[in-house]
Amino acid sequence: MSGPEKPSRGRKVTSFDVARRAGVSRAAVSRAFTPNASVSPETREKVVKAAKELGYRVNYLARGLTTRRSDFVGVVAAGMDNPFRALQIEQITKSLVRRNFRPILLPADQGESADHVMDQLLHYNVSGVLVTSDAPPTALCAEFAAAGVPIVLINKADTIPSVDRVVSDTNAAGKLAAATLVEAGAKQLAVVAAPGPSYTARCRLQAFMGACYALDVEARVIPVEHNSYREGLAVAEALKGVDGVFCINDYMACGLIDGLRRLGGKVPDDVRVIGHDDIPQASWAAYELTTFRQPCDVQAEQAVSLLISRMDDPTTAERFEVTPVSLVRRATV
Amino acid sequence: MSGPEKPSRGRKVTSFDVARRAGVSRAAVSRAFTPNASVSPETREKVVKAAKELGYRVNYLARGLTTRRSDFVGVVAAGMDNPFRALQIEQITKSLVRRNFRPILLPADQGESADHVMDQLLHYNVSGVLVTSDAPPTALCAEFAAAGVPIVLINKADTIPSVDRVVSDTNAAGKLAAATLVEAGAKQLAVVAAPGPSYTARCRLQAFMGACYALDVEARVIPVEHNSYREGLAVAEALKGVDGVFCINDYMACGLIDGLRRLGGKVPDDVRVIGHDDIPQASWAAYELTTFRQPCDVQAEQAVSLLISRMDDPTTAERFEVTPVSLVRRATV
DNA sequence: TAAAAGAATGCACACGTGCACATCTGTCAT
DNA sequence: ATGACAGATGTGCACGTGTGCATTCTTTTA
Predict the structure, then answer these.
(1) Do B104 and A106 make contact, defined as CB atoms within 8 angstroms?
(2) Residue of B nearest to A94 (CA)
(3) Which of A247, A249, B165, B319 has the fewest CB atoms within 10 Å around its CB?
(4) What is the architecture of the domain spanning A15-58?
(5) How far apart are CA A1 and CA A212, in angstroms?
(6) pLDDT digits (tens, 9 = 90+) for A185-237
(7) How far is A134 from A111, CA to CA, in rounded Å?
(8) With contact defined as beta carbons under 8 Å apart, do A187 and A243 qualify?
(9) pLDDT tens-digit readout, A120-168
(10) How far does the CA of residue B262 sit from the closest CA of chain A (Å)?
(11) Boundaries of CATH 1.10.260.40 in chain A?
């Protein structure tokens, strides 16, 4: 019988085994599985055949040892209760896998600095790191730079040397939010946001307030602890007299709308609400939330591209890409 | 000056460098970073000091080469638009990281078999795989078993040799759903579910119908394509005459409720609705959905435990653990 | 005090692979 | 016919680490 040679009890099958079976040298096996290597078609075929029979698979960890590179990319994320984050992670991992990278997902607890978990990544020769957590790494950035491991921050904080960033167009969102609310007849505006670690939230808030000032409309800042559904729900009663709200993300906006309705308010008749992110729930019939679409598939693609280009050329100055946002008009304004 | 020895331009610092700086052998360095190894406290201290000064980190990939094990665990998931899946992934990865494993996240497209992506994992010496995708791997299971890599399926299909499974208590959920709806006065029951690949969905459906039969209540099966919000929304108009619905998951139940309301129906006055999973949205004020809580943190913990125990002893017969579900009574019934 | 036991350390090999280099073959132009 | 040349193949070293074994040093026991 010519079935699988051995049940290979625990024993791993190596390139040496394949070489012997195919009657070639071990180097030939290596070349057969290396693109653009110098092998004759017949040899390659023999090797592939033997490999299949033995159930051989190239050990990418060992390969990485000699090539000094790995296919791993760290993905640091926090707050997956926010549906936007979940989609973001899905898009990021899909984009990575599509380009033959393996994402190592590290959940960082809300608010906690990413330094702690990221420290682990340096042990695995990751060829890059994507960060989406609220609190970006700071202390470790230098170490990653020294190790030649590029980092790309998505929607995160201030300029860090040799760290690329992808950020959605916060200025456009803030300005357009204010203009849209005013245009719809709102006189007393407010923006709900946590003063916490979320960088884009702060920027949008700032842009919104600036625009309100320019439009000469009264506007208040209503702070919350976290930009979450619960906080949005609770903060509704702090909106007496307000007839136009920019809620810093949809996740919280859903809570805000539920809170307003619970208090007997009508949306958009009494209060106009505008959110940000265009999470799936924003289009749910219960909300029909007017919001800004932040295309996280495009953003993921941008981030991965940035990462790859910096792997190839680590010397370029840090870059800063802005992803456009677009207003999705629904029923809350 | 005694600062960082060299800027280490590209050059990786290895255990050899540390050994030289600490004035010990390379083996001593290895032992200093290996738990329960035979090293004197002084030597360890010298090594750690030198390592810190040089910015040395043990290369876990190389370590895995000699120890023949890696810290990687594959996590195969699909359908992250369903919030339950997102939470599941968060819990699973957290549980893995807590036990010092590194999760490699592989998104499997909806409906697509997991075989395609899982094939990659065998190249990375993963010490285990957790599968949450709808369509579980079938063809590859034997190969993983031969390679000695344990697999644990979460809420997935039928018995596969030497593959452990964790499944929520579908019987209890189906039965209790029927009983609860009848108790609330419903006369015409229905269950909405996709006949597709989701194993637990099928089981719950079956248990529900069985219970209805036992209770001598009329009940219909209303099929959909996918168990998603959109389908739930659309299927509402197919529920003429029905006054009690078991919706196979909350994600779809939210759509169903929105659909019923859009048609002018009252929940729970006209139609009682009961869901499953207790996703965050189920507790949102807009829904207040009565549902079954499936504790995905507990489930993740169970799955990881099962995985680890099988790493240690691969010979045990395949196991099957049932996670209890609990009815969360809210306002839709 | 001598002997035995134990702890600490260094040497050398192994893990599975890629790649530089040397070697060998066959082809084509001169 | 001879040389140059390109392609295919084998040999040997390197990647960074763990660990068995022998050796040395320290402590305990009779």
Answers:
(1) no
(2) B107
(3) B319
(4) Orthogonal Bundle (1.10)
(5) 81
(6) 999 999 999 998 788 999 999 999 999 999 999 999 999 999 999 999 999 99
(7) 6
(8) yes
(9) 999 999 999 999 987 777 788 888 988 889 999 999 877 788 899 999 9
(10) 8
(11) 15-58
